[in-house]
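Please go through the sequence and fold tokens given here and tell me how the chain folds. Record follows.
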Amino acid sequence: MAKILFDIPVVHEPSDWTDTHLVMEVSPHIFSYAILGREKKILQLRFYEMDARNNQELTEELRGIIVADEMLKAGIQKETFVYNFPESQLVPEKYFNENAGKNLIELLHGDFNKGITLNERIEGRPQYNVFRVPAGVHNLLQENFANGQYWHYYSLWIQYAQKQPDDRADRLSVMFYPNHILVAAVKDKELHLLQSYEYQAAEDVGYYLLNICGQLQLSPEDTPVILSGMIDISSALYTEIFKYFGRVEMEEFPGTKPAEDYPAHFFLPLMKLALCVS
């Protein structure tokens, strides 16, 4: 059963609750949302941890949240969904064929997980993102949010990164979720890897990052490793990374910190996306 990890109402004037935008992230592990008001003010943040073992259970857990969560029924003017499912492939524009998307995903990710294949062009790059999402999840959201817009997490992450001033040629960006990380590896200012990994122990994360550096011939001592999401600097995860990498840093939060009781970087994965689509 899904459980709430964070529930953070942010007090603003009643006038801020006009022109609102509901940005939701949907993944096998997390369902989270931010409600933004005028000038992208954060009005509400809520994070659910999902306990589903398969796509059918995930659909039913989401259905339960939609029925019970009153904020999702508040008549918000704009609704955006961001899918964070790992079955995704970047395709150069010159090779993109919309009719071949399903075959491409099944070739690279298998056909065990049935779903709907979608695609989108990545803003500012001659690439398309072809991805698969569970059919039950997509149909459920379309039934309950008829005017919703849909994106994939990787597409928006790339767009966000392109707009940030960063003159470092090489870097690893790592976003943390419960037992799950997303890694973007940049070498010579070009994106070389964007991938999802499951982990059970802190040592798993260290292994993945060292292996990426080995594959791309990046120096663990000299390559900046930029962390965000649900990682605490006093945790075994942080210690494991710090043990092998010489330039570890926490990513800065864009804007006003939403909650004093939690580190701002906890909310970066969602807020970066919200800023891209607002």
